[in-house]
Structures are given as structure tokens and as C-alpha cells.
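Retro notes
What went well: the complex prediction finally ran end to end.
Inputs used:
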Amino acid sequence: MERKYRILLAKPGLDGHDRGIKVIAAALRDAGFEVIYTGLRQTPEQIVSAAVQEDVDAVGLSILSGAHMTLFPLVLENLRKQGAVNILLFGGGIIAKSEENDLKKMGVGEIFTPGASTQEIIDYLNLALPKIKKDEKII
Amino acid sequence: MSKSIDKKNKVSGYSKWLEEYEKSGTSKDRKFMTTSSRPIKPLYTPEDVSGIDFERDIGQPGQYPYTRGVHASMYRKKIWTMRQFSGFGAPKQTNERLHFLLSRGQMGLSVAFDLPTLMGYDSDSPRSFGEVGVCGVAVDTLKDMETIFDGIDLGAISTSMTINCTSTILLAMYIAVAEKNGVPSKKLTGTLQNDILKEYIAQKEWIYPPEPSIRLITDMMAFCADNVPKWNTISISGYHIREAGATAAQELAFTLADGFAYVEAAIKAGMDVDTFAPRLSHFFNSHLDFFEEIAKYRAARRIWARHMKGKYKAKDPRSWLMRFHTQTAGCSLTAQQPENNIVRTAIQALAGVLGGTQSLHTNSMDETYALPSEKAVKIALRTQQLLAFETGTANTIDPLAGSYFVESLTNDLEREAEEYFNEIEKRGGVLKCIEQGYFQREIAEAAYRYQKEIEANDRIIVGINDFTDNDEQVEIPILKIDEQVEKEQIASLNEVKASRDNDRVKTTLAALKKAAQDGTNHMPPLLDCVKCYTTEEEITSVLTEVFGTYTEPPLI
């Protein structure tokens, strides 16, 4: 049997709005991914160490508090520090278009904002993950 | 639940109508259901309300069971309080926004705090990095509250503060600011959200475990009964439960169950129900399903009155009244074609008004992008003024009473709420249900179902899965919080720490700790703490030493 892709979903910072991430967790599971949800209020260090420990293919962050321009870069920095440079980082939340572009330039794979369907996220992962080669540096 | 078309209805003309209705056919593409996935019949008739006893179930406004409203004159005496939730950046910026709103006809204040303040961290905590002043205003010490309310007469305006696990600290600061300005606490009016149960259920901002958290609340209720008698001590909130994905019936049932849990806790703490119940208020969402929302408010008033009088034996009619604030549904707003959000908000606001709300917040069109800009928040406020003074909808009280449909929905919602109350009791009560993740699971399931309905096109959202603009360029101004705010707030905090009497800080904190340990009311020593500029985190740290912290049971 083919190995399922493993996705770590995380809520960094102090934000407690978890409706979105729970919907996405359920949708990804129904679509055949293996989903690990960290729970609320994880520090970037905790998220990255969970990602490495669980040997995941991608990390998804959900942030509705406005702290995304601080938290995404911190997670990227920690992933690089841990040498976990072939883990895909994506995310979503209340994020303005201009910031979305800045985040992508920094190394975030994709940002999903209000109105995105779970199918778009599933399609994105199904397309992006098989392209990543072992030991390839993507962030 | 009204599931299908009633075939046996004997009302005059019904069978002829049914024949024609079935002959003419209905759209195969549309599902006739509410926002909460409740199936709706094509027609409601006297049959649907045949079990209603007017006096017992509906009555008149200002009379038990208050289905029609809590006051005899409702909006003819005083229009609802237009209260826009507001707060961002440094205290000075929020002070400017509050003055802006007041000068444009806003009638009450509602302050939003940033996440570190909501969670009990100071602006210089490593946990606060990137969050200072971002989703609300930053408050570390009394000095910040003095700035926020500078130039505002606290004796003349009511203030609502959205704060929960750190609520008693912010209330103490508010009382201290007022006292400094010569306003005695007995004159203060306003509301503290202070609803920790819905935090465990939906919004997820907590510090301590449930039991000590409830104790802080009952301390505060007892303190206010004596010292701040006009203050609404808890705003029992369904808003966040709904935003997290609950249906209308779940919002209604879980919120009122929380409310009854507070009533039971206060009675258990030795208070007489009539000393505190008149100061409890409620806070509901207004979502898109117009009639279901109106029915929800009407059912809520009736359920509250029946339980307060019947089960909790309250004798003062003021204890039976369910007064409530309404906020339009943030989760219904779309990032696509954001101007459409003005229309959504207007319809939701109208439902709140027809449901008899005491105060109202209308969301701004740009809130799926950021905190609202000045222009967007002004349109939102104008929406309320337009409803109040142009549309005529506030001229008559409870205009939808007697509607077969609305009365039938009101009954359905009351019954469904009662079924949930039974289930909650069977599971051992609200705290047990939180522990078991019962509410959290019910809500998450409803949220996922809603999303699946959208993706299957069973539910149309304009601009999302139909009527989309592919070439859309969104051009609305976005409010940005300057990163400088965090640096300046930390500098200001350091200044306060350097200039205050640090010995007094230590002594007052020790007294607070002692009260927390020995079970005496923590409010008086807490007031002493804030008055000497003890920081919020210094206070929460001491309380955490005594109470410990809460971790959510893993649920998915």
C-alpha cells in the first residue's frame, strides 16, 4: 500500500479560533491524508519539533489573530534551523493579498484565505507533494 | 423539527393549495433549509401553532414569559444601544477611535483587547511577540486604561468589555480609572463578557481550570452586587459558539445551559438568586437565516424566563428577563466582493432588531481582511441608524408575533434547546460536557457539515460558489497595525515599572495570593494591586501559582 502523506496542522501564537483548522483536518482526513493536529497555542519551536518528530510532508498553519507576519517567518526559520528543508509550509487565515505575496517570497508554499474550499487545499497538496523529492531543499 | 409537507392539514383551502403546489412543481436544484440545515416547509398555517396558548406562551412585551420582549415600550421609549466593538493598537489610538465613534452618534462603548491582554500576558512577554495591539488594544497596567478612557465621562456612558479569563483584572482597572476621575463605582454601568464556559467550549481563551475560573466569577458577582450594582456581571455568550460553527439551536441551547450553570454556581456559593440574576445579560449572534434568528431570540427569552422562575425560583421579575446584545455574524462575511457584506450585515441587524435586542454591533465589510477601517466602521454604524430611523421597523413591538412560521420556529427552537438541556444533564452537566469534549465535537461536526454543503453547492454563498467575479480586484482600504506599536507599548510598560512603588506591588500581590488560597473574595485585594500599577501578567502569574493552568483534552 502506498504511504499516506502526513500533514501537521498547527495553531501558532495566542489565537484560539479553531473552526477553520478543524474543518480542514476533517476534510484532509476524508481525502486520505494522515493528519496530526497540534492543538492550540503552540510556539514555532514546538510546531517544528513536532513536524520533525512525526516525519511529516507538510505543515499547515492557521492564524486569524493578525500575527501571521511574525509567526510564519519564525516557523520557516525553525524548520531551516532543524534542517527540515523539504517540508512544505502552507497556511491560511485573515491575511491580506500583499502579505500573502510577501509570505510566498519568504518560502511559504501557498496561502488560503476566506472563501477557499477544502477541495482547493486538497488539490494543492495532491499536486505539490508528489513533486518534492527526498532531500530536496524547498524552503 | 418541521420535516416535510404536512399532508393531513385540515385548514380551509389547504388541500386545494397542496394539490396546486405539487402540480406546479418546485426547483430540483435548491434545498429548502435554514443556515442551520433545518428543513423548512413551503407553507405554515394555523395548524402549526394550534398548541399555543397565547397567555402562557406569548403574552405581552414586558410580561412573563417575555416572548415578545423585555420592556413594555421597547424601541418607542429608547432605540437599542448602537455599540460598535472597537479597539486596536496602542491605548492612545483606541482612545481616538472611541472619540470618533462617539462624535458620530454611537451610544455606548465596547472595547476590544489584544490577545496578550485577553490571555494574561504583558506586552513584553515572549508569548506576546507579534500580537501586541494587533486584534485589539494592548493593556498592561492601569496607565493604559487611563489613556483609553481619557476625556470620556464614565459616569455618563456604558462600557462593554470583551474580556474573559482576565476579566476581573480589567474590571478592577475600570473601577480604578473611574474613581480617579471622581466617578464612584456605584454609578458605573456596563458589561463584562466574563463568560469563561463558552471559552472552554468555543473561543478557547483560558488560563486556569474551570473550577477556580468559576470561583473568580462568583467572587466578582458578589462584589458587584454590593459595590457596582448597575454593572452587568456576565454576558452569557452564544456569539462565539455560533461563530465556531454551531447551529442556531446549539447556540441557543449551549448558551442558556452555560447561563444556568452560572446561576447554579452562584446559588451554591451562597448567593440569593434575586441578588445577582437581574445583572446577568446575554450576547447572541445574528446569522443569515432571517426568520430562524428572530425565532431564536424569542425562544431564548421564553426559556430563560421559564427556568429562572420555575426551576431557580427567582421571585424578582427582573431575574426572569433575558436582556441581550447582538452582533452580526462575522463568519458569514466573504472576502470576495466585500461590499456585499454591507447587505448581509444589514439583514442580520434587522433580524436582531425584530428579535428585540437591547444593543447591537454591526460588522464592517472589510473584516475578512483586517480590523475595520474608519470608513467601513462608519457604514456599519450608519446601517443601524438607517434601520432605526428610516425603515419603520422599530415602530411596533415584536411585529412578527402571530406569524404561523415564526411562532412555529420559536416553538421548535425551544423544544430542541430543552432536548439539549436533557442531554447535557444526562452527561453530568456543563463542566462534564466540556471535559468530554461534547460541545466542542457537536460544534465541529456542524461546522464541517456546513462547509460540505457549500462545496456540494447545496448552499449558495454569493461570490463564493455562485455569482462569482473572476476578474475581481478588491480595492478597499485596509487598516494596518504599525510594528512600532509593540515597541512603544513595551517602552511605556518599562517606564511604569520604573516609576511605581515596587514594594507596594509586592505587598498587594501577596495579599491577592492569600485571598486566592484561603477562598476569601479576591476582588478587594485585586483592586489594590491594579491601583499601584501592578501589571496584568504579574497578577495572572500569582493566580496561576495557586490555581494552575488548563489544557484542553485532545479532541481530534
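What we learned: Residues 68-81 of chain A form the longest helix (14 residues).
What to try next: split runs per interface for comparison.
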